[in-house]
Amino acid sequence: MEIFLSLCLGVGLAACSGFRVFVPLLLSSLAIHFGFANVTTGFEWMGTWTAIAILTTATTLEIGGYYIPWVDNLLDTIATPAAFAAGTLLTTSFVEIDNPILQWGLGLIMGGGTAGFIQAGTSLVRLASTKFSGGVANPVVATFENLLSVVFTFFTFWFPIVAFVFVVLFVTWLLRKILNRKSKATS
Length: 187
What we know:
By secondary structure, the protein is an all-alpha fold. The protein has helices at about 1-20, 20-35, 50-65, 70-95, 100-135, 140-160, 160-185. About 80% of the residues lie in helices and about 0% in strands.
């Protein structure tokens, strides 16, 4: 049960990385530093003041960048691989498995895959927003993504199993939307 809970926590936080790369990393670092969360051996550095300072700077720059028209679309090209890496790191750091190959494998597949998929979905939303509004509506999209990332990160720490179920439902919904869009485009 402990492995399942830690996997749910990791995947939930990885999903948040799909909305904003650095928000769940920063909030996780703070939770680790102040003793609200524990990471597996080798990831204690995430709770250091140095990590917190770096992640605070990165979070501030990321959030600010999404409010600058056209820079937000550029950030999406960088954020997609970064979200994959952040999702992998978050899931791997919380999954309590003694086998490093299995631990990193789960982190890559479940955490990185979830974060990358959600980031790709948010990129499509931003492209559509740019296309239909000339970028004027992008700050609204950015605000919504910021809120989702922060609120869902806190929610994940309190209710990891429920968060995991939400992630599965959201990824399923997003996948259906993408597949429906492709089938309409080919028809």
